[in-house]
Every structure is written in structure tokens, then in C-alpha cells.
Amino acid sequence: MIAPPDRTPLPREFFDRPVLEVAPDLLGRVLLRTTPDGPITLRITEVEAYDGPNDPGSHAYRGRTPRNDVMFGPPGHVYVYFTYGMWFCMNLVCGPEGTSSAVLLRAGEITEGAELARGRRLSARNDRELAKGPARLATALGVDRALNGTDACGTADSPLRMLTGTPVPSDQVSSGPRTGVSGAGGVHPWRFWSVNDPTVSPYRAHTPRRRPS
């Protein structure tokens, strides 16, 4: 029987560190999503680090734009982007303000509010698949661009808050290449996951998208 997660909010100082320190330390932490229909909690099991101007795979590699502006702001805020014209993905900004690094939340276990997540993820075959992948995770939690810039270290009425949870021991954390990242950024082993957790998404190498003929 798993003990209830620690509901203490994570302080902003947790995120005000280098992205490669924050990313593996997020495993086992809990994201609380508050909705009008009730709360949903997610235990984080898989993440990817993106290191701003030092990382060709980062949205901020070429500088500040209206799309990535939140990444340059204070740590602990949520960066949400739209991808493939279909899906939203969510990140947590970290490092000192202006450094534009962030951690993509790739997968997790819904520990509370699964019935709400199921209503959004009708194609999930079981609860392990509710948040198995970054787009599925955002969908299950009802996260879209309206939540871009949310302070996850904010007050109790924030729609997204990061809680302490139960950190995964370092010997139970594995790392490898990031999923779907091409070019120079594809070689970084900056994907971190909880070993043997069934909610972790499968690794997929980058496959170039082809335009319809």
C-alpha cells in the first residue's frame, strides 16, 4: 500500500537550480490540478530537460519569442505549447530568471481524480495509459494554452501546484536520449524516468515528418 503523497507545496527555490538537477528530482513529485469538477493529482514518473540557449533541442535555443516567452520568466511557472497542430504539452520553468530552461512532463500516474481524467482520455485502455506521454498527460489534466504562465508555486487557489510528493531514490532513476529530438540535441541523455514504472512512455527516436504528396 503506497502512503499518501506529501501535500507540502514545493518552494520556488526547488526550481531555481540548473535544469539537470531539477529534472530527475521531479520524479515522484506530485502535480495538483484543480478544476471546477474536482481535483486531479499526478505522480510524475518521466521527464525531459531542455537547457535553453545551450540546447539545440530547446524552443528557446534561438532566443526569445512570443511563443516561448514564459521560459525566460521566473522559475516554477508553467510553459504550455501546442504541437503538431493537435496537442498541448506542459513544462516547468527552472533556473534563474532569464536562463530559459524547462522540464517537460512526459508521463505520470493519476493518483486522484482518475474518473475526471478518463472522461478526457476516452481512448486510454487502462488507467496506466491516462498520462503516458506528454500530450496524453496534458489532455488528462485539462491543460491548454490558457494555463501558460501559471505559477505552480503560487497560492492555494492556483489551478496548477507542485507538491513535495515522495522523491524517487537516485538508484531507481534511469536516463537516456530524449524522445523524438533530432540533430545535435538528440544525443543528450536528458530524459529521466522511474525504473520499471508502468506509466513511463516508450522511447521513440526522431522520425522526420513527410509532407503529403
Automatic annotation (TrEMBL):
EC nos: 3.2.2.-
InterPro entries named in the record: Formyl_transferase-like_C_sf, MPG, MPG_sf
Gene Ontology biological-process annotations: DNA repair
Keyword Hydrolase: yes
Top-level taxon in the UniProt lineage: Bacteria
Enzyme superclass (EC): hydrolase
SUPFAM superfamilies to which the protein is assigned, alphabetical: FMT C-terminal domain-like
Keywords from the named record: DNA damage, DNA repair, Glycosidase, Hydrolase
GO MF annotations, alphabetized: DNA N-glycosylase activity
Family: Belongs to the DNA glycosylase MPG family.
HAMAP family per record: 3MGH (MF_00527)
Protein name (Swiss-Prot/TrEMBL): Putative 3-methyladenine DNA glycosylase
Organism: Streptomyces doudnae
